[in-house]
Amino acid sequence: MQTSIVKIEHLSHRYSSSWAIRDINLEIAHTGIVGLLGSNGAGKSTTMNILCGALNQTEGRVLINGIDMRKDPKQAKREIGFLPQNPPLYMDFTVDEYLTYCAGLRLMEKRSIRAAVDEAKEKTGITHFSSRLISNLSGGYRQRVGIAQAIIHRPRLVVLDEPTNGLDPNQITEVRTLIRDIATERAVIFSSHVLSEVQLLCKDIRMIEGGRIVFSDTMDAFNNYVEPHSVVMHLENPPSAADILMIEGVTNVDFLSAKQLRVYFNGDQEITERLVAASIQHGWRLREITLDKTALDEIFKQLSGKSSNHIK
Questions:
Q1: Global pTM?
Q2: Taking the CB of residue 99, how many other CB atoms lie within 10 A of it?
């Protein structure tokens, strides 16, 4: 049986008198993208810093490909590539100088460094900037350089802490494509506080809130959990709430304005068809109807209140 690339057991860390994370347990396989989702201050960066050996935990242990990070950090770190939230770039280096320096930090054999630098540049699409100073690159290309240093030693695990933060929409799309490509050969842990980004990229999701894991499952399972349970309707000739409550599946109605209302339902996905049919039949003059996903803050609140049997 193949050892998981990451196994975290009962991980806790305290800053002064307050716990940043408490009793974190998770396991990650060898390929694919796992999303670590949490609001700002939830404990994502603390978890990732401990996972990568940049911070010693107060309690618990981290195994990287079966190697205990605390007992043998040098060997464990050989398996990891890490891009922190603020990329550790030296702005007065050229791309080649910086990546060569990073390869040396990774204790790579000198004879293999040149080929490794070329491979990392090609994979991240920065070969044509080899001789350019990092200070003269755009934010998107600086991020690519940061990702290149994280994969230069061909690690089995790549950890990316909010890698699209601060990028424009085009740059975000390019970095997402790059991350997908990297994940075909290795495991990637991708942290974000943006739900839609995790949904687009990740096969599995781990949600952390208040320093604890509150959800650990596949993206499909999560999407099923956050199925919409309300629709927002704009009606030119709205009826009373009592009339809408007569429709099968409707559980509640809130008027957001004179002509806009939120209709709550019991999960029956045919509710939109029923509402449209009722509008036509009764002359409500429907202008717009939109499924309303549960807000991320509300999801965190719900999951944080669940019992442990909902956490795998």
A1: 0.75
A2: 24
